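User: Please run a holo structure prediction.
Assistant: Happy to. Please share the sequence and the ligand.
User: Here you go; the ligand is S-adenosylmethionine.
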Amino acid sequence: MDTGQDLKQIVKEKYGEIAVRSVPASSSCCGPGCGCSEEPIMADNYAGLVGYVPEADLGLGCGIPTDGAGIRSGNVVLDLGSGAGNDVFVARRLVGETGRVIGVDFTPTMIQKAEANRQKLGYNNIEFHLGDIEDLPVESGSIDVVISNCVLNLVPDKQKAFAQIHRVLKPRGHFSISDVVLSAPLPSALRSVAELYAGCVAGALLRDEYLSLIQKAGFRNVRVTKEKRIDISDDQLAGILSPADLEAYRRSNARIESITVMGEKA
Ligand SMILES: C[S@@+](CC[C@H](N)C(=O)[O-])C[C@H]1O[C@@H](n2cnc3c(N)ncnc32)[C@H](O)[C@@H]1O
């Protein structure tokens, strides 16, 4: 079994490659999941959203966490695992000129790409910081709304991630997070396939387990506001799974879902 540090290294390398290759909304790499096929498998269509910046959309999300997130003019918003800045640019329009949006990501080339997008547009109320979600470089009690899109499944210690979200939020602040969860456990052989981990599948928790972690972190009014089933075809899986593992996966009935979940700090 890989350690948390090994898993983070796999994730950094994978998303480092994607940032460099950087084909907007259809990053072509290897394997299934977030940002890993000819066509994005999990990502929603952002075209038409106010604030949308096509260069920042690498097709890596699995929902639209800003949608219905209760982001208000003047808010300070934090995007965890901000990638090239897709949700940061959308949130910027919601907070307006008096608000601020901060993106944090631990892959240096993602931060560089996001910063290049920001500079090109000349926006000065957004910022991107290199940092790990398990140890956020953000002051305690400083954030109105935390958002994140298809990222926490990639974080080895999810309890720590939710504790960090709780720490940085202001009292009565809230979060809106889109992420991948499972309906049943994956066969154990599949959990150690690096491509499935980096592709947002093998690191996903069972839905109930995920929601219970959030409750344990001290959030209240926790609710799933959106959900959708993710279908990955045999062709997409065939490149990374042996025929036996593919069959075990199909037999396991472990359906992959994307949910958007919200919760509040007391
Ligand atoms: C699937 S991509 C999603 C990117 C972005 N949210 C979007 O929708 O375009 C996952 C991102 O999370 C970042 N990431 C994964 N684990 C992280 C961690 N522990 N701390 C900070 N960033 C992390 C990766 O570097 C990558 O940019």
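Residues 174 and 264 are 4 Å apart (CA to CA).
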